[in-house]
Design brief:
By secondary structure, the chain is an alpha/beta fold. It has three domains: about 120 residues, no CATH class; about 180 residues, Rossmann fold (3-Layer(aba) Sandwich), CATH 3.40.50.450; about 55 residues, Winged helix-like DNA-binding domain superfamily/Winged helix DNA-binding domain (Arc Repressor Mutant, subunit A, Orthogonal Bundle), CATH 1.10.10. Helix content is about 45%, strand content about 15%.
Amino acid sequence: MAVQDTDTPTPACQDVESLAAWLRLANTPGVGRHAAHALLQQYQSPQAVFSAARLRLATPPADGDADARAMSLQAARLLAGPTPERIRALAQATLAWCAQPGNHVIVLGQAAYPPSLQHIADPPLLLYAKGDPALLQRPAVALVGARNATLQGMANARQFARALSEAGQVVVSGLALGIDAAAHEGGLQGPGGTVAVIGTGIDRIYPPRNADLARRIAAAGCLLSEFPLATQARPQHFPIRNRIIAGMARATLVVEAAAKSGSLITARAALDGGRDVYVVPGSVHAPQSVGCHELIRAGGRLVATPEHLLEDLGLDPGGAAPAMDDAAAHWLLAALGHDPIGADELATRLQLAPSAMQASLLALELAGVVERLPGGAFQRLKGP
């Protein structure tokens, strides 16, 4: 039985008790992600899980009792007591974090939860999102690869990511150095946008060198984590994070991966979940290509250009960039001027909807007339 979906707002960010119940179920040592998800499927809510745990200890189960099969005695002992103070304190800190603009906690079963993610074997019970949560509902493609990437590999990642974003796909990656960072940069250049799934608490950024990129993603895309606030980076967190990257996406593209790259974990999670995996090949002598070639041998699909990938995914390369006639282009460029300006400010100046403004600016950007700057501003390069 699946957790019931609902269009009504979740109470998870409205009071300490309900949020603490979700946090406790997700973070009780000794229970584990798979067991917590199975218990939530059986009992439908965290509060019902804790009630069943108390009943399990108070009443010896009869032979064939469904509750006895659903909840082990060990799990019942861990979940039957009062809410620990550390969980209550975490709930209070999380509520304070949620009160800040752009911050959200999304629980499994809520309408805002990423639809493709709820079908993986162990979906996160809670997700912390900073930025635009609407991106979590849109079609997505994961793009991952080596941290120690070559310049060509990073250029390839930006090119593929931008093409995906221009075709309306959200680019999902992990905010790591190298290929991940380039993928986010490319995703930010198109209307599809980007989501960064991180291996720390949402209030911690790792690696620190990507702090500015993370701020830009929070402003124009979305940062996402399943780890509680204040969680520091740990090696074991990143394989856990990788299953979310693969689970959110309809397909995963790997650009450069060494023999033991973490990107292979993401790709294998995608393959195990029945998702397509695409691979950009490289030199047979390059260490950054060893993992890519292993993936191709294991069933990954080789792509050499963004056009190949878009064609395989059934996407229109020009679908997100409608052409503009000369009169409209001249009118827009006249309003743009020669100084950097944000799309929202320009839309206000012209009394246009921001979505229409973005599409028009993208058309000019592809024509080489307008440049998209860091932070979401635009600047005229040349024009009539």
